[in-house]
Specification:
Layout: H1 7-15, H2 56-61, E1 77-84, H3 89-92, H4 106-118, E2 126-129, H5 133-143, E3 151-154, H6 160-165, H7 171-175, E4 177-182, H8 199-206, H9 208-216, H10 228-248, E5 253-257, H11 259-270, H12 274-278, E6 288-293, E7 296-301, H13 308-311, H14 316-329
Parallel strand pairs: 1-5, 2-4, 2-5, 3-4
Antiparallel strand pairs: 1-6, 6-7
């Protein structure tokens, strides 16, 4: 039986073998306070980013909390990578996990590393994960395989002491790092009284049809839990308020999250109906790539092709990035 693997031990082991790259983007000089905007009755539509929205990276790159960084758009397009976390210990045991915080199995670790290899030449400036360890492990392990060799660092703003104690004083180190924002809004949907129960035994107790409705219907929640609609409400609101503004400025974003929170975001990106999204299946550790351009999201597919050319459709900007990356590493 697979065992849980220590994130710190794995990251330390792999990262110690990776050379640093001084050409990586700046890490924040000051911690930040991420605004939480949970809006009700939202419409699933793409809206233009307004100047009043303060992007995360602009805030992070300010030398102090009182300094304002100009909102300069870096490019007319940006990459968005979505990765469902690798297999967890409760995935392996066929248990309802929801918001219970369990780590990856050895297979899950391998899936995260393989995902990292598949996205190793796609630019990443900023990472968002859920607050759950399986998503954070997936993001960290994936980035150990990235050719830019930047170090992902989870930002802590839960208290003033956490901000102070996690402050990075070396500007050179900040240049070699990628900020990681953990947000509960990207968590898996809360399965209520089903959490920790075996899925087959639950079907025997309540009936296959009832369990299927709890798992796959859009509007029906499990007992004391969230429906997919409720999960979509928080996940999409967070995406619109905090992630889409970064993409609009040309910042490339990786999101490592969960089946239902990512399903919700894909519903928004691909303009799926509530019926279409319930049949959407996401494999663990398999990335999806979107290009954000002219306020529109264009899916570039999933890395299932036999060669890199067959993995993702190329764009001019991705080709330029890969060329610069090759030059910097040679």
């Amino acid at each position: 039986m697979a065992t849980a693997v220590s994130l710190q031990a794995i990251i330390g082991s792999i990262a110690s073998q990776s050379p640093s790259n001084s050409k990586a983007s700046l890490f924040p000089k000051e911690p930040f306070n991420l605004p939480i905007k949970f809006r009700q009755n939202r419409c699933f539509k793409i809206e233009a980013t307004t100047a009043s929205q303060t992007p995360v990276l602009d805030t992070l790159l300010s030398p102090s909390k009182t300094t304002t960084t100009p909102h300069k758009k870096k490019s007319n397009e940006a990459s968005l990578i979505l990765i469902r976390h690798g297999e967890s210990l409760w995935n392996e045991k066929n248990l309802f996990t929801g918001c219970v915080d369990v780590p990856l199995t050895e297979k899950g670790v391998a899936e995260a590393i393989q995902a990292g290899k598949r996205i190793s030449t796609i630019p990443v400036d900023l990472i968002f994960t859920s607050s759950l360890i399986r998503a954070q492990m997936t993001a960290m392990l994936a980035m150990t395989q990235h050719r830019c060799k930047k170090v992902p660092i989870i930002l802590h703003d839960e208290s003033e002491k956490a901000q102070t104690w996690s402050h990075v004083f070396s500007e050179e180190t900040r240049k070699q790092s990628i900020p990681v924002v953990a947000a509960w809004q990207l968590n898996e949907r809360m399965y209520g009284e089903l959490q920790g129960l075996n899925k087959e035994e639950t079907a025997e107790r309540y009936g296959t049809q009832q369990v299927h409705e709890w798992r796959r219907s859009y509007h029906i929640p499990p007992p004391k839990g969230e429906s997919l609609e409720m999960c979509a409400e928080r996940a999409v609101a967070y995406f619109e308020d905090n992630i889409q503004p970064e993409l609009a400025l040309g910042n490339n974003v990786l999101i490592a999250a969960h089946g239902n929170s990512l399903r919700s975001i894909i519903m928004y990106l691909d303009k799926l109906t509530s019926q279409e999204v319930t049949s959407l299946e996401l494999s663990t550790g398999l990335p999806l790539l979107y290009i954000f351009k002219d306020r529109k999201f264009m899916r570039r597919g999933s890395p299932v092709g036999p060669t890199e050319a067959g993995v993702y459709a190329y764009t001019k900007r991705l080709a330029q990035y890969r060329q610069k990356l090759d030059e910097s590493l040679n």
